[in-house]
Amino acid sequence: MILINGEIKKTVAADDRGLMYGDGLFETIEICRGMPVLLQQHIDRLQSGCARLGLVMPAADLLKNEIHQLCEYQNKGIVKITLTRGSGGRGYRPAENSESLRILSFHDWPEIPDCYYTNGINLYNCKTDISTSRSLSGLKTLCRLDQVLAQREWSETEFAEGLMSDSAGHVIEGTKSNLFIIVNGDLYTPSLKMGGVKGVMREKVIALAQQSGLLVHKTEMKADFVKQADELFVCNSIIHIWPVRQYAKKKYEVGKITGQLMTLLASSLDQDFNGND
Amino acid sequence: MILINGEIKKTVAADDRGLMYGDGLFETIEICRGMPVLLQQHIDRLQSGCARLGLVMPAADLLKNEIHQLCEYQNKGIVKITLTRGSGGRGYRPAENSESLRILSFHDWPEIPDCYYTNGINLYNCKTDISTSRSLSGLKTLCRLDQVLAQREWSETEFAEGLMSDSAGHVIEGTKSNLFIIVNGDLYTPSLKMGGVKGVMREKVIALAQQSGLLVHKTEMKADFVKQADELFVCNSIIHIWPVRQYAKKKYEVGKITGQLMTLLASSLDQDFNGND
Questions:
Q1: I want to staple A196 with a disulfide (CB 3.0 to 4.6 A). Which of A180, A192, B63, B144 is the partner?
Q2: Interchain CB contact of B91 with A (< 8 Å)
Q3: Contact at CB, A10 and B14, closer than 8 angstroms
Q4: Any idea which fold B115-273 has?
Q5: Tens of pLDDT along B62-90?
Q6: Residue B179 in contact with residue B173, Cβ under 8 Å?
Q7: CATH T-level topology, domain B2-107
Q8: ipTM field
């Protein structure tokens, strides 16, 4: 089912600015036992993205009601919120006070092999550059052609995810996930000052790691530094944490710290669900 | 009127990859005396963009027929061709052999003040970064949020165009045009290796300049170099050439070489129209 500005519909105007210019944002939210996971964090990120782009943010209660409507008879799945600047304006220049268009859609839960969690994944090294721009860094915008081209490079049966670098060789993130590496007991994740998406799960992992006493460094890193890692993992709102078992011809065990963070995360999400957080 | 895959329609599927991921390309074509201008160049660029993105290019004759259908009772205007990868795929990963969706739309000719051509324009210096990526450089993709944000910075009544630089300070292009500068009688235009759109009019201007004996340099340039220019102009398929009369607090006359190129361009487009080229 798709709700477009609250109505059950399947189409949008051909002149919507989301289509014409990628002028919008999106969120991908896990639905577990019929309830959205980390919903407040997703809403907060959408709100902060709207502020940076000058988009009108829909009321949080409206979004919550529509998510509820989509999930009513569902147990497990994904709700995607797409927010565009709607139609209108003059070329790239948006109309003032243009109303946003919101698209909320429910999607089946993807099949994820258990071994991705127990043994880790094969991580591909993408040749496609990730775009850099201070103006868009951190945002989950509708401009995702980098990621589309990157995923065309490899087959899903060989690699579960691919790691992207900018044209200067800085490792930024996976095509659909954020990267963490562990070096000498500290946690490192790429700085997102120049590009990449500030993932809701990235923030959650950082918070849990800090609570458990780990030092977390957000830093520029190149492939050589990643290769020094003792442990590697990627994360996002749907997959949670996937340990990496192979990257750039180097093999890794599912490390102790990664395992601890996976346990902490599962327990924290469970607490959230039970309203104990 | 809008033709979507040849049918008169106004909407596209809400899961079109153009909307979801900016997964597509577009062309903006001048219609003059009922005929598309530089049509072969636009079709060639679309073809080359399709090859880089792995999109299926529609047959040129099909596009020509649909443009003709849109322009049948029109004298002056714009035809926009938008090509997306259509619906389908699994997240960012496109389906194999996915059929493209093509949207052809007719738009009224914009009112452009005569003084933009005779006295030149005020060129704004945008703070929004233009994204850099070798993988997408030169392409006119649907990911144009940089340009949307940049145009939000200034009012159209003050500046006719804005100049964008990447985060390292390289001047790349206008929000909707390519930049040329003249220094000591030579023509310079930013290299598009790291970003920017390889404009059809940029290629035309380069060809005309070279035919007329000018040296043309495609090169990295920073704002300091631009400020040394004796003449500056911007160009695209709709505006043709706009001389710049003010940029970064410096004033310019409409220079001799810019004037010559404007004359050469007008005459060449006229020849194309009369089939003498």
A1: A192
A2: yes
A3: yes
A4: D-amino Acid Aminotransferase; Chain A, domain 2 (3.20.10)
A5: 999 999 999 989 999 999 999 999 999 88
A6: yes
A7: D-amino Acid Aminotransferase; Chain A, domain 1 (3.30.470)
A8: 0.96
